[in-house]
Known about the structure:
The structure is a single chain. The chain is α/β, with parallel strands linked by helices and 215 residues long. Helices cover 48% and strands 15% of the residues. It is built from nine helices and eight strands. The protein has a five-stranded parallel sheet with strand order 2-3-1-4-8. Strands 6-5-7 form a three-stranded antiparallel sheet. Strand 5 (127-130) and strand 6 form a beta hairpin. The chain is globular and about 45 Å long. The two termini are 12 Å apart. The mean pLDDT is 96. The chain binds adenosine-5'-diphosphate (2 copies) and zinc ion (ZN).
Amino acid sequence: MILILFGPPGAGKGTQAQRIEKAHGLVQLSTGDMLRAAVSAGTEMGKLAKSKMDAGALVSDDIVIGIINDRIQEDDCKDGFILDGFPRTVAQAEALDEMLTQQTLKLDAVIEIKVDDAALVERIAGRYTCANCNEGYHDTNLKPKVEGVCDNCGSTEFKRRPDDNAETVAKRLKEYYAQTAPVLPYYADKGVLRSVDGMQAIDDVSAQIASILAV
Ligand code: ADP
Ligand code: ADP
Ligand code: ZN
């Protein structure tokens, strides 16, 4: 199965992708995570991406298309994958179509997670992840079962993203509406777009997604 989780920053794409990954054995491919890994590793690509990410702007289509093209040909993707944060422009959506056609793969569904702007800002402000395994948490909405200990791996170290600050979030939301939202009609026209109410609790959003995937 090949899925796209679509939505603005903070909508819950990563949270839901981690759950689908565990439940369905599909790998989560987050371009944001891949770019952050390139930034940490100090690669040429990471250097190019860093200034854009710090400013809340999109990284160039060429870079992210290249990353995804390489990644989906790896062995662990052969039974399917979940794209989280890609495509983010119509050019990226078109490039993805070409890649999938070339590998005789088919996109099963694009699931849009709809969330109000005020909730997005609150979700991003409280977001943090495990520094070891990347499991996602929130200061009030999703705390580890034992305070300060990752449910998934037991690590006691957590991190916050440098771009999760109020100023950058405003810029990222603007970019979403200007460049990414126009991808929605592209998939609606293909008949693969489904929407879920992302204002619900995390488990309820998961249940709605599960019912779409079960069809
Ligand atoms: P995205 O990947 O779309 O940017 P995340 O999955 O990282 O979003 O979620 C952003 C923050 O909001 C995280 O801290 C997460 O725990 C929290 N969150 C995700 N889904 C919900 C939800 N349905 N209700 C409340 N908080 C949520
Ligand atoms: P969020 O889900 O909170 O928006 P991501 O981790 O998906 O955050 O993305 C973080 C940053 O990485 C984006 O603001 C952008 O600079 C860059 N990025 C991630 N995916 C893409 C993409 N498909 N195209 C361009 N830039 C991207
Ligand atoms: Zn962990």
